[in-house]
Amino acid sequence: MNSRVTLGLAALLMLGAIVVGYWGLVLSRQPAPVAEAPAAPAAPAATVEKTVAAAEDQARQPVVVLLHDVPPFTPLTAADLAIEKLRSAPAGSLATLEQAVGRMPWRHLSAGTWLNEDSFTAGGTLARMIHRDERALAVSVDEVIGAAGQLIPGDYVDVLLYLRQDASNPQQSAQTVVPALRVLGVGEQYGLTNDGQPASPALGADEKLKQDQRRVAARTVVLAVPEPLLSRLMLATQVGTLRLAVRSSEEQRLAKYWAGEHEAPQHFDAADSQLFQFTQLALGSAPKPPPGEHRTGSPRAAVEIIRGNQITQQTP
């Protein structure tokens, strides 16, 4: 009896093993599930981005720039140039390679410089910082004259003159000789040229700190002087003591200058009318009698007195 039970259980287990093996074989033959492909971006969004990019590209303006440094007096070739598209092109910049190929710059140009007509115009740093009706004039300064060393290129100053009382100048005076002159440079530091480019090369933090220290100790200031007032300022530097009075930045004189606004002739006339005893600048004034002394009657003839080789005039 026990052997029959054992045989039955063995047959049952064998049958179960066959069923499980067949089921596993069936499952192994089923195709693997296909991975779900990622959803493609919506076509309308891609179209909008392309449209916006195309519109921005059309709005950009071409500018001719240098690919590498170019020495002076070297004709430019197409290999030296490239076209970059900017949202706003600098005023006066060249837009096509044909405008620059074959032309010769008169000064050293660095890589990345955008080109304009001034790039091919002769002239040094100062000559490119003033207009045709201006002159650049250097003035000697010290810590007092130069506003305690706080002047920087781009400031506007009034030039004041103090005349001492002496034999040729019987009355001391102080006056504004030339008002509102633009500071081009202080020592070795200069501002912007007429094309908006820095006149001095870009410096690192350490070099800039050293330059600022030299600027504070500078002994010369270069001023942009209107041509009609040039001789007056030159004369003032020789006959008296100068002071440079800094004008407020709220006047926006520098902004007006870059906007192309120039001093009208009537401004020069007004400057002349504000001068006090301007004839003293030429040292041409005659000595005045002391206060309270009045001449009465007709002038008396002078008597010539000769003592040896000396001749004097005396009035009896």
From TrEMBL:
Listed SMART domains: SAF
InterPro entries associated with the record: Pilus_assmbl_Flp-typ_CpaB (IPR017592), RcpC_dom (IPR031571), SAF (IPR013974)
Domain of life: Bacteria
Domain (SAF) ranges: 61-121
NCBIfam families: pilus_cpaB
Name the UniProt record assigns to this protein: Flp pilus assembly protein CpaB
Species in which this protein is naturally found: Pseudomonas ekonensis
